[in-house]
Amino acid sequence: xxxxxxDPMPARLPDQRPSIEYFAAFLDGELSADDWAxxxxxxxxxxxxxxxxxxxxNLVRCWRETAPAEPSEKIWREMLAQIExxxxxxxxxxxxxxxxNARPGVDAPRRRWIRVGLLGAAAAAALILALLIxxxxxxxxxIDLAELxxxxxxxxxxxxxxxxxxxxxxxGNPPVQEPLVLVAxxxxxxxxxxxxxxxxxxxxRMNPGSSAAPMxxxxxxxxxxxxxxxx
Amino acid sequence: MGMIxxxxxxxxxxxxxxxxxxxxxxxxxxxxxxxxYRAVAYRVAYRLLGQEADALDAVQDGFVKALTxxxxxxxxxxxxxxxxxxxxxxxxxxxxxxxxxxLRSLDGLVAGDPDSPLTFDDPARRLERADLRQFxxxxxxxxxxxxxxxxxxxxxxxxxxxxxxxxxRISVGTVMSRLFYARQKLRAYLAQRIEL
Lengths: 231, 196
Hints:
Number of strands of chain A: 5
Helix content of chain A: 25-40%
Helix content of chain B: 55-70%
CATH architecture of chain B: Orthogonal Bundle
Largest sheet of chain A: 3 strands, mixed
Strand content of chain B: under 5%
Number of helices of chain A: 5
Number of strands of chain B: 0
Largest sheet of chain B: none
Strand order of the largest sheet of chain A: 1-2-5
Distance between the termini of chain A: 52 Å
CATH class of chain B: Mainly Alpha
Mean pLDDT of chain B: 83
CATH superfamily of chain B: RNA polymerase sigma factor, region 2, helix turn helix motif
Shape of chain B: globular
Number of domains of chain B: 1
Number of helices of chain B: 10
Oligomer: heterodimer
Structural class of chain A: mainly alpha
Order of helices and strands of chain B: HHHHHHHHHH
Shape of chain A: extended
């Protein structure tokens, strides 16, 4: 890899097969001169891997050949006018409300998405907790705090659902693509939650740690939850 | 013998200069930025959505969001990287909202469809390209969302590995891995339908 990149793979001996990800980087010209020469040598002596790189090269060629053509200049002009109009509208709304914390571009649909996301996250937390906490559990819960994968509707196919479980089903496509971290009350102090700069994933700031990962903070049965202001 | 005077064109303004001029209310600066990046933003959005009208919506949303949230990006990456991050997220968001409509849009990729922007003079070649584009669209849907976004930012957005890593806030190693396996999946899908 280029020198300013972290190298995800350990150094290899000359007779060892390069990591397969290097073949893509070789094709894309993203390797350092040394790594490029090492992969080139390997391919010269290993036709099966050379065939793999050739197949990827053909795929890149196909890709370029099917690039979409640009819309007409008329469409672009109309779009530019609409962009200017929307920008002015956003600025005007911010100045009319006099809200010093108002951020341009944080419009209603975006707030709606954030609300939907947070509601979805809360519902997911409730579902997970309902499944993890024994019904007659006494004292502090013994929960394995693991990352929760977030799936979209395209990722799963529902095969069957028992009647009693229908009230537990979380549906929808939350605007969160990365794993969530489930924490219990008292594990963190939440300082603030702000919309992300491009409006898709809320940024949670918390102690300890500086992670900005979206989190679910669940209220456990019998416990009290306090925010950072003590309310 | 006459004297020839060579006048060099003025150097193009940097993105940073254009953004500063735009912030000061210079309309031409926005127009220049728009002209500079509209095509690449459209290519990325089109590949993610497979439909011209949806792609245009995503580009428009992306430009507005990218420009109105400049304070959050400055100093972290180039404007192009920032814009393509926002446009690709807007496209994915739009795709989720419209759900399965993207599958129906495959019907719009057949040759002769007025919404399909590819044009070829030779009818046989046009049909061949239309088929290829349809296969590519189907192959893209076989990728996970993060693989698709990573691959398209690189292949259609023209971002380097480092720029893709900055755009998606992941490591370069993760970019490498996603790109390799995305190509493997695309190749496997397409190899059953066309000669690669």
